[in-house]
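Q: Can I see a sequence and its folded structure?
A: Here is a first one.
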Amino acid sequence: MSSVSKADRKAALDVASWFFNVVTSVGIIMVNKALMGTYGFSFATTLTGLHFATTTLLTVLLRWLGYIQGSQLPLPELLKFVLFANFSIVGMNVSLMWNSVGFYQIAKLSMIPVSCFLEVVFDKVRYSRDTKLSILVVLLGVAVCTVTDVSVNFKGFLAAVIAVWSTALQQYYVHFLQRKHSLGSFDLLGHTAPVQAASLLLCGPFVDYWLTEKKVYAYDYTVISMFFLVLSCSIAVGTNLSQFICIGRFTAVSFQVLGHMKTILVLMLGFFFFGKEGLNLQVILGMVIAVAGMVWYGNASSKPGGKERRIYPVPSNKSQKQEDLSDSTETDEKV
C-alpha cells in the first residue's frame, strides 16, 4: 500500500513540476513579447542577467530562512556549467538575429537529437524503437506548425551550432550535477545563479549593443515598461527553478520533448491575443501531431525498456549521499 501511495505521490509531483514549468515559461514569453515588442526593450542578454539577479535574491532569502542548506559544488564544474549556460543564452539570441525564424526553429528542434546523443555517449542510455519514433513524431509536428521560411548564412549557422550544443550541454549538466553531488534544485541555483547574474550583467550591455546598436542605459524607462520588467524578473524566478526541478526529476531529453508543449501553447495564446491571421490548417495539423507524439513519448519511455540508463557510480559514503539527495528533493517539494 505504501509503495502505491509513494508512486501516486511521485506522479502527482511530476505533473505539478511540469505544470509549474509550462505556466511560468509561457507566462514569461508572453510578458517578454510585450516588453520587447510593444515597449522596445530589446536588450535580451541584459534582461536575462536581471532574471538571474532576481533568482539570486530568492536563493539568499531561502538560505536565510533555512530552506537551503550548505552544500559544495567544485569550482571547475561550476565554471563549466556557467560557461555552457551563458554561451546558450548569447548563442540563441545571436542565432535569432542572424537567421530566419524558420532556421531558428529548426535549430531549436535539433536540441532533442543532440541531447539524446549526450545521454547515449555519457550515460549509456538505450532507447526503444517506440521511444525513438515518438521523438520523431514530436519533431515532425513542431516543424509542421512552426517552420516557415528557411534561410541561413555561414555566421548564422555557426551561431546556431554553438547555441544548440551549449544549450544541450547546460541542460545535461543540470541533471548530472544534481545526481553527482546530491544537490536539490534550490541548492544548484544557489551556486549557479549569482555567477550567471554577475557575468551576464557585466557583458550583457556590450552584447546587446553589438546586436542592436542600442544602449541599455539610454532606454526610455517608463512606469509601464518598468512594470513589465519587474514582472518578467519575477516570473523568471519560477522559470529558472522549474527548469532545474524538471530536469532533475526527469532528464534533459524528456524536458526538451515534453517542453515543446510550451511552443504549442505560445502559438495558441499568440493567436488568441494577437490575432488569428497565422492560424491555418497546417498549423493546427502540426499541433495535433506534436501533442500526439508527446503522449506517445510519455507512454513509450515509461515502459520497461523504453529508456534504460546507467546509474551514476556512487562513492563509498553511499548512504550519506542518498540521504542528502532525499533531503534536497524534499526541500524542492516543500517550496
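Q: Show me another, different protein.
A: A second, unrelated one:
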Amino acid sequence: MSLFHTLYDELIGFLGLNALLDMYHTGNYQSLLTLNGILGAVSPVLPFLLLIEITRAIVYKRFKIEDYRMPFLIFIINRVIGRFLSIAAIAFCIGVFEKYAIFKTTFTWYWLIYGYIIWEFGHFLYHYWGHRVRLFWCLHATHHMPQTMNLSVSYAHFFLEGAYADIIRTTVCILMGVNPPLLFFIMFIDGFWGGFIHVGENVLKNGRLGFLNKWILTPSHHRVHHAKNPLYMDTNFCNLLNIWDRVFGTYQHEDPKEPVQYGVTRNVNNRNFFDVYFGEFYYLALDVWKAPGILNKVRYIFMPPGWSHTGDHKTAVTVKRAYLESLKQTPSTTTQYEATTS
C-alpha cells in the first residue's frame, strides 16, 4: 500500500493539486485571498495543459511516445535532488548577498516592474552563458535535446542547471535590491511563463499570441530559441520581457518561411538516456583529453561550443555568419531575411 501512496503523492504533486485538495478537505477557502493560496490554485494549470496537449495529439493521431518519454524520465531523475539543490542555492545567495544590496525594495507594483526587469537580466546572463560557455552548455544542453516542442520539454533539465541558474539570477536580484518576498513572487511568474512557452503545436499551432508577440516573448519566440537552424541559433534568451534580447541584439522573430528544426546540431540518440543527459560532458571530456597543451584544454572548457584548437570552429557565431554570407548570394532570400529581422 505504501507504494500506491507514494505514487499517488507524486501524481498529486506533479499536477500541483496539493493546495486545492487541502482547501477542499478543510473547507477553508479563505486562503484564496492570500498570495500562497492564489499560487496554489494556479499551480495545476501547466500540468493540465500538458495533459490536454497529449490528449489532442492522441485524438489527431500525432502522438509519439518518444516525444514525451525522455523528458518524463529526466523529470523523475531530477525530482528530488535538483529541487533540493535549487532551494539551497537560493537560500545561500540570499543569506550571503542580501547585506550588500544597493538599496531595499518593497512589495509594490512599481518595484515589481523594476524587480522583473532585473530578474530578466539575471536570466539573460545565465541563459546566454549557458549557450556561450562550453561547460555551462553541458548543463543546459539536455533541455535542447528534444526534437519536437511540447510542455514536457520544460521538465527536461540536467539536475545541476537549476542551481547554476538560481545562483546567477538570485545573486543579481538580491544585489540590486529585490527583496526576497518580491523575488519569490517573480520566480513564480517566471516559472509559470517559462513552462507555458514550451506549449507545442498540438495546443497552439501559431504560438504568436496575437499582438502580444510584439511586446513579450511568446511560445513562437521560444520555439525559435530551441531551433538548430543557423538563422535562429543563440537567440531569445529572455523568458517573458524581451528587453535584454533587444538591448544585446539576440532578439529574433519566427520566420514563416524558415520552419523551426528542433534539437542540437550534433547527432543525438534520443532513445538513449545517457547520450541525452551526459552526452555533452562526454564530448567535452574527449576534446579536453585530445587537446594539445594546458591552455587549449582550458579553452575547450570555457570557449563556446564548437570552438576548436585547430581553428576550424563550428560555433553558433561562425555557423550563422556563414549562413548569412550565403544569403547575400541570393538577393531575394536576403530581402526576405531583412524583412523578418527589421
